[in-house]
Amino acid sequence: MKLSLFVACALAVMTASLDAQPARPGADFRTQYIRLGSNDAEGLLYQPAQAPKLGIALVYAHPSGNNFNHASGREMARRGYPVLTVNYRGESDSLGYLPVISRGIAHVQSLPDVRRVILVGHSGGGHLNALYQNVAEHGPSACQGGGKIYPCRGEGLAGLEKPDGLILLDPTLGAFHQMSSVDPAVQTGKRIAGLDMFSPGNGYDRQEKRATYSAQFARRFYAAQSARNARIVEGALARLQALSQGKGRFSDDEPLVISGRGVGPAGARLYQPDTKYAASTKAPHLLLRAGGGDAEQIIASVRPPSGGQAAAALDSLSVMTQNTTVRRFLAESAIRTSANFAITGNDIIGVDWSSAVTSTPANAAGVSVPALVLTMSCHYLVVPGEIVFDHLGSRDKTYAAVEGAAHVFTPCRPEYGDTVKRTFDFVDAWLAKPGRF
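Above: the chain sequence. Below: its structure as tokens.
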């Protein structure tokens, strides 16, 4: 059904025109549909009316959904940069996306007057594009060895086109983002009361959908969450061994259903209803203030409590259950944590970042090009963003936060003003810094 829907949409676009469309009223760019070498790979090129600003073009990719309408396309095109937003509808893992991104980079490199290509990722696109940059710079060895739970095979990953810079907008941490959703209170039958973060007895307010957890409960919760994560990973590895020995349910892969492991933003995450966790950066960084007067300071998240979706659907198949396969789980979501794992007010400890192929911090360490991490202060990725920034191998690297911006760049309260403009104005200014590119 997904493929047929994709074909229908692609044919509709191609029927309308295979050539560049004129600018819409009030817009200063045009769009062009691009086929990227196969039926499951496509791009939408946002082309400004003028020559590429500073000779720079952007390529945007995210591992799921339709990227054609992402804000980076229209916002950066309006600022003078060609932007190719990329879709891939083939194998549902990050590694399958990498050759498509490479073809997208090659396409924009062929545009007139383009001298530099910058890779852009937002949210889960953070781990995808950090992975791409690392593999493009170092080859398939970047996702092999080094204690990886499920090393990549490397097919199709040699000779990827190399971007000249990397922009990560409110990036997640890759496999860890899924690990942090594991509910340690899940067991067969009744939930474990002493580990239930959605129980009023442990500090959760069901009416307000917020929480105040004690330090003692948090320690128990994190230890149990890490232990359950380890059991899940080891169980998947045992099934992988059975598959390799011809003893699996199928010859190539088999279904894996993990109860109490949230999907997307849902999950058993203490930092969602209790905002004292993952609350601020450790070091001062640039805050893009609503009223001007940007300043270097500790970046504090101004987000409201969240996570109510998980609380209302603890036994849901679609919200609090991960439906995947053994190989897909190991490739995308498996990461090792230790007994001292915890998310504190300004850090995440006890994680083996190098154990997962999709780990954003581990891949950031292999990046040498100029890199920007721009977080949104009305979301819970301020601390993860700083962790990614700290791991970046780039000599020229920047961390900044947009005051009051939610995850999708819009203001979470009116007093924060036009956060979309502030976000992309800063990206523009970062790209235009003399000597950077």
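The two ends are 43 Å apart (CA to CA).
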